């Protein structure tokens, strides 16, 4: 009996607790193996995508020039009311900081930063820094109340509150100055935000121009790609693949080569103008270069494959029997196409339009080579502030706003895509 009872009991290793523990270990080993497989890709994306974007956002709000170069002056101005002239201690601190900046060769960044808010300040700062240290007639360093008249004698701007207000306002190593400036907003001496003068409000127009050009290019690409993608979807697979190669050949060609080709085609003596005049459509060459029309034509051509591919992939999966069934039930062919076929292509339209619009937002080479001064987009000014004026804060602020706009567009697309799926 005892032997039979022992046989009826399950073995210890087959107990539920042991099975649960073994299952957990097996799942854990699978998760570790999966993470090990994707770890190189995750690290690569982190280093090439996440880290640069984080650095971009940080540089857009960083403001280290004044806080790092004028620490004594910032401390001396902490109790200043920002109305009249500061105390003698602030003048003495400024002289000491500028003397240190002269020795360390760090005054250039300081002068550029103050000049960004106060035009003409760079020459004042550099001239004052070159005169450091301040000495009396006997060659001894000035101190106390003697520093103020010496600085004012060097340049009368030091006797006005404007310079000191800029220093006091930017005492923190972080500031929204560049982000506000990129949307034509300013801060006064007390931190109040106000709209810039219409003569100085340029970035709002630049962003509006960027979005408008991107929208027009997206619409043109959609109107051109939709019938072409539909035509390809009605062909046999062999012929469709052959024509798709012709669509993708420009996609595999360098952008600079395509832009150079459009310059040849659109110039006054180019093939397009010659063809128009030969057909009698125009009597004189049209201005197709260095204006908005040339930018539209070139960008639409370059971005056309990005619209065709999503449309073609969606149209290829739509059975043609749907439209034929609607026509057989008495619907007009155009009404059947518009009410039955087109709604099924909305996912391809949305994906292609989003892709083309986002790519168009960041275009730089095409407007720079084919457009005039009134066709330059945000990316042109990002390059300008990066390479010409060396103003990384402004360049990163413009890039950060463009990045946020892209995320917002993607969020809107996801929202409508979910609604469309739920319907």
TrEMBL record:
Belongs to the binding-protein-dependent transport system permease family. CysTW subfamily. It comes from the Bacteria. The keyword Transport applies. It is found in: Cell membrane. The keyword Transmembrane applies. Residues 207-413 form the ABC transmembrane type-1 domain. Pfam families: BPD_transp_1. Its main location: membrane. CDD domains: TM_PBP2. It comes from Pseudoduganella namucuonensis. This is Putative spermidine/putrescine transport system permease protein. Keywords: Cell membrane, Membrane, Transmembrane, Transmembrane helix, Transport. One of its GO terms (cellular component) is plasma membrane.
């Amino acid at each position: 009996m005892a032997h039979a009872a022992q046989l009826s009991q399950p073995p210890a290793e087959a107990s539920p607790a042991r099975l649960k523990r073994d299952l957990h270990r097996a799942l854990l080993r699978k998760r570790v193996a999966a993470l090990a497989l994707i770890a190189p890709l995750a690290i690569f994306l982190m280093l090439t995508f996440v880290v640069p974007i984080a650095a971009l956002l940080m540089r857009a709000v960083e403001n280290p020039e004044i806080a790092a170069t004028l620490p004594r002056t910032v401390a001396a101005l902490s109790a200043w009311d920002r109305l009249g002239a500061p105390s003698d201690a602030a003048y003495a601190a400024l002289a000491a900081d500028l003397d240190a900046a002269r020795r360390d060769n760090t005054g250039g960044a300081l002068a550029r930063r103050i000049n960004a808010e106060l035009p003409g300040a760079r020459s004042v700062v550099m001239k004052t820094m070159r005169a450091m240290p301040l000495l009396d007639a006997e060659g001894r360093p000035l101190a106390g109340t003697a520093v103020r008249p010496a600085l004012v004698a060097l340049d009368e701007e030091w006797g006005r509150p404007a310079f000191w207000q800029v220093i006091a306002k930017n005492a923190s190593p972080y500031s929204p100055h560049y982000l506000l400036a990129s949307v034509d907003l300013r801060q006064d001496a007390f931190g109040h935000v106000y709209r810039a003068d219409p003569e100085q409000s340029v970035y709002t127009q630049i962003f509006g121009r960027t979005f408008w050009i991107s929208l027009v290019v997206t619409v043109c690409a959609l109107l051109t790609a939709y019938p072409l993608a539909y035509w390809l979807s009605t062909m046999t697979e062999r012929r469709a693949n052959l024509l798709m190669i012709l669509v993708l050949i420009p996609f595999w060609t360098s952008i600079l080569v395509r832009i150079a080709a459009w310059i040849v085609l659109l110039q006054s003596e180019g093939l397009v103008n010659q063809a128009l005049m030969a057909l009698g459509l125009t009597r004189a060459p049209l201005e197709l270069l260095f204006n908005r029309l040339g930018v539209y034509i070139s960008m639409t051509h370059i971005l056309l494959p990005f619209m065709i591919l999503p449309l073609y992939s969606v149209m290829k999966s739509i059975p043609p029997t749907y439209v034929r069934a609607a026509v057989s039930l008495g619907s007009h062919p155009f009404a059947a196409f518009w009410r039955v076929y087109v709604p099924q292509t909305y996912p391809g339209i949305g994906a292609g339009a989003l892709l083309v619009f986002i790519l168009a937002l960041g275009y730089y080479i095409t407007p720079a080579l084919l457009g005039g001064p009134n066709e330059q987009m945000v990316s042109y000014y990002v390059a300008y502030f990066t390479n010409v004026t060396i103003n990384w804060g402004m360049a990163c602020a413009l890039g950060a706003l463009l990045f946020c706009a892209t995320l917002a567009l993607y969020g809107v697309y996801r929202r409508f895509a979910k609604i469309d799926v739920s319907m």
